[in-house]
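Lecture notes, unit on protein representations.

Consider one protein chain, 202 amino acids long.
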Amino acid sequence: MRTEFDSVSDSSAQEQEPPIFQKTSPVEPTWWITENLYELSQPKAVYDAVVKAHYPAVFLNSAMVTGNSLDLQIAVKKAISKLARNSMITKSLPMEVLYAISPRTGISDALKVLGFNAKLSAVFVVWLHSSQEPGDSQRTAFEKLMQQNGNRLPLSRIKDLRNLSAISDFYEFSTVPERPPLSPEWTTVLTSYVTSKIATKE
């Protein structure tokens, strides 16, 4: 026998949140970031195009992304601040963001572990733009490239693609007592720890 509560339950199950494929966030009064996640069918073709085009974006190994947008916002804010002071350690704003995300001081470490390469099956892209809508010609060209060599994924899929063990090792995170590795509690603490490492890096 069905009741009114059964109807409410069925309705709630059907009203699921639509997937989010893009997220735009303000970082500074004149700077925004837009996050996208892509599955790659032809990673080498995409990688070669990225190297040649010099897109205004940070291309990250999806396995090394926690999924916390605050990490990216902090790193971009730091990079923009260094750009304004003419004190960047690297030669480009996207590379400076990548360096800011890395817990290490070596640029090669940041590229090797966090950066995009031709063997990845997915890439997390952070577009850097000085207007609220990232609709420039380079962005359009990249979308056309991806139509032939991959497809966009919901941002929530990063939880399936990230490698928490690798992230823990790279950021030198010690296991929290009484919280088993990879448990939800452990993951929450790890994510907060990564954010603090990015925020406190000189």
